[in-house]
Design a protein that fits this description.
Blueprint (H helix, E strand, L loop, with lengths): L2 H9 L7 E6 L13 H17 L9 E12 L8 E11 L3 E10 L2 E14 L4 E2 L4 H15 L1
Antiparallel strand pairs: 1-3, 2-5, 3-4, 4-5, 5-6
Length: 149
């Protein structure tokens, strides 16, 4: 199995996540085929990212925020109206001014989608990327370590 294949398999495994949030699929989230529209999967991922990054006081230092630079989303199963969607989020990697999050969308034990997103720390005054401060790097590493416990 390739490195990409191993990572995707890992993201499809519920045990890869310690941080969770959940959503409920609304009727308005469905399309002509009666399943949740593909764009809504990205919205579910956003809900998980926002809860991970800004919940419990937030990870961004004062005067900084996070922007998404890249989103890769793999669809694995349908979701339908009324489904409870559990969103797992974990840290996959750290760069100089960015980090990569992995996510899984689950309906019960079944993985409906996996995603990887590159997040960039942005200075809210200059609107430019900024190096990740050591305190943020440590906190993100702690969250990754906690996910491996």
């Amino acid at each position: 199995m390739t490195e990409i294949g191993r990572r995707q398999a890992s993201l499809a495994d519920r045990s890869s996540y310690r941080f969770w949030t959940d959503e409920r699929a609304r009727y308005s989230d469905t399309d002509r085929q009666g399943h949740v529209n593909n764009a809504v999967f990205a919205t579910f991922c956003e809900s998980g990212r926002v809860a991970f990054l800004y919940g419990n006081g937030g990870l961004a230092p004062p005067g900084y925020g996070f922007v998404i630079a890249r989103l890769e989303l793999d669809f694995r199963a349908e979701l339908g109206w009324g489904d409870r969607v559990e969103i797992g989020t974990t840290l996959l990697g750290l760069g100089r001014s960015s980090f990569t999050l992995g996510q899984g969308l689950f309906r019960g034990d079944r993985c409906a989608a996996t995603a990887e997103s590159v997040m960039v720390l942005m200075d809210e005054t200059t609107r430019r990327a900024s190096h990740l401060p050591e305190t943020l790097r440590r906190r993100l590493a702690e969250l990754a370590d906690e996910a491996m416990d």
